[in-house]
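Minutes, project check-in
Item: structure for the 228-residue chain
Input as provided by the requester:
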Amino acid sequence: MTVRPLIGVSTYLEAGTRWGVWELDAVLLPAGYPRLVQEAGGLGFLLPPDAPERAAAAVERLDGLVIAGGPDVDPSRYGAERSPRTGPPAPERDAWELALIDAALRAGVPLLGICRGMQLLNVALGGTLVQHLDGHAEVVGVFGAHPVKPVPGTLYAGIVPEETDVPTYHHQAVERLGAGLVPSAHAADGTVEAVELPSGEGWVLGVQWHPEMGADPRIMRALVQAAS
């Protein structure tokens, strides 16, 4: 019997969430993430925010890690003043996910950052973010789409070699690249849409879009294969 790799996915911590007759604090995640992991051949494991010092122990039990999309990264994490257009902070999630990223990088666990996850990967390695750009989230609460073009010779280009339309919903992006990261895809306006560490430094990829909202499983399949 084939053993499916265990893929951890970080989650939201939301106060006063309603379901059925209940209104309670909840740890939650859009179902597209675990579904995509499952369709790609992995076992999805949800990681609620926890004490950062426990991140290494959590990562030790995983074969791969996904840092999910979500709220804006606190600008204080990359030494910037908060823009009026930056969303409210999520300090517990920032601390936990930064610790998860650090643990995965140290342990060589395959890592995929999605939207916020890509931005947080960049910040974890000393990079900065553009706090607002127009044209990548047209309608509040509705995913858009635009083409991204891979950079030849990169990990991402080896997975998706052609220009493709991707599901998008973001208003922040990479400004200064973190240490060691290279861009591996761009939007038509030049926005960095994917980043990665060069080959030989582990399987580490961040994408600005939301593959869990699309129909192309290749990125998650590549993560699951690397984690197998």
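Outcome recorded: Residues 91-107 form the longest helix (17 residues).
No further action items on this chain.
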